[in-house]
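Feature request, filed as a ticket because there's no other form

It would be nice if the structure record came with a short human-readable summary line next to the tokens. Right now we just get the raw output. Example of a typical job, pasted below so the devs can see what we mean:
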Amino acid sequence: MYEEIKQFFQTTFHREARYLFSAPGRTELSGNHTDHQLGKVLAGAVDLDTIAAVAPNGEPVIRVQSEGYPRCVIELDDLAVHPAETGTTAALIRGTAAGIAAHGFSVPGFDACVTSRVLAGSGLSSSAAFEVLLGTILNHLTQAGLNALEIARIGQYAENVYFGKPCGLLDQAASSLGGVITIDFADEKAPAVERLELDLTAYGYALCIVDSGADHADLTDEYAAIPGELRAINTHFGKTHLREVPEEDFYAALPALRREAGDRAVLRAIHVYEENRRVTEQVAALKRGDFDRFLELVKASGRSSWMYLQNVIPAGYKAHQDLAVALALAEKLLGGRGACRVHGGGFAGTIQAFVPLDMLARFRSEMDAALGEGSCLVLSIRSAGGILLEVL
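Raw output as currently delivered:
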């Protein structure tokens, strides 16, 4: 693959690349929609990555040619938000460059060819991998010395402010840091990050990500509604994030909250409170090697996401309920063993399943038969985050 992308760069820009960079996709192990409420998450980088062949160009411009997409060209003398670029690759490039510049560094021009095994819409956060990739490139070229979490924050800034998606920091942090990590966002400026050991094979399990076949396109409003409705809960208490609202105060104010914010907002808040406790319990279970308890909590997270957070079926969808079908099929095939849950942002994309190794072949073949060949991906945890792979 590395020779292919080097040739891709040569063919595209008619010169040799100088560097190869890589950033991984990520899987959310727990903490569904808790990060934007200063909650707790558990996540891991996976062995699917986005790779770039790069060379400085000595011009005030960034040119990015992603495989299969039109070329993006960003003039570095204009790093302001462009509303017309909302939801585009150009917005992520411009936003990442602006984030580096905001740290006081002069952003150099470069040319890059990018190829990705983190499929768009897969729920493995191809956008975060791309943002971390860009941040890692610019961190190296500017010799800024930013750490992995600072690069993740720049990626989040690009996605929030320039791309227009109100995501938390989970995706970018997992991609940038690598390995399995738990993050407590209680201190927004300095989240507490802890690395964990997780050898699934030693426990006799495989991690599967199953593509439901539904795309995230046109679902931005569904994602935005979750922090939006939780904001209505927080406003009642004069707070910005649910983590700042004591749970006992929340339940004491339930009648008023139902009137002011609506029942779905109340249920979503209940999910966040309980999900934060689950993350704490899952981390403790992994530390003591209690994988059975970890799986019980995976199942509980999935039930809560469906019942309370309600990010399995988009509002009003009847004929197409792809994630729900994928979850139902996974539960049937697992037959009470392992665990499955909605993965990541939800509403479309993928589900996650922990599958006993002795069931893996049948699980994968039947999922592929029902949902399409290649729908079931068997993944491994990647220890490295965004990195410089090679100086050419």
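Something like this underneath would help us a lot:
The chain is about 45% helix and 20% strand.
The two ends are 15 Å apart (CA to CA).
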